[in-house]
Amino acid sequence: MFDAFFKTLNQLPTPPFQRVLWLSIGGSLLTAIILWFAINLTLKNTDFIGWGWLDWTVDLLGSLAAIVLLFLLLPAFVGLIASLMLESICRAVEARHYPHLPEARSQSIMEAIIIGVRFAAILIVLNILVLPLIFVPPVYFVVGWALNGYLLGREYFELVACRRLGTAELRAVRKKYSLSTLSTGLVIAVISIIPIVNLILPLFGTAFMLHRFQRLPAISGNT
Prior knowledge:
Elements: H1 2-11, H2 15-44, H3 52-97, H4 109-130, H5 137-161, H6 167-176, H7 178-192, H8 201-214, H9 217-220
């Protein structure tokens, strides 16, 4: 785990990662800005009650809710950015750390996007469903972190693994090493809620998961 984490950090400033790094930051920042305005616009233009002062109170609380929703929904949307940059990130990591690997199978961008969209939808829906638990902070923290860790771990695992495994084999490996996938997802989930740092989530999450994937016995034993 620590080895994969620091290998990912050490590669961030290297030339092959520079373009992808700035695309990750720019794409995530643009996504955050658009999402922020969309959430606020939705909350402000929704007449919840119809009484002036009560609506004002709801709008005020809505601004606080927008912050919470931004942090909840951002990982789902930047996961789509990761799907667009998947091949560039994986090739850069493999060229530096796993040059012995055979060429990965040709994967269409649409295939990666479908994975990203599917998990984005699931992430959004489930996070909204557990949102009422925010009134019980300790419970919400544990449930939210575990939920996002599981979903982000599974999403980034599938993005990385589908380049080298067929559908049936991918599911078997993911099931066998579910704890490894979860622990990696929990780290990605922590990064997703750290302001500024979460702008590199598409790049970091993909590279980090690739290292973890290549260390699985079922994978390393065949390479």
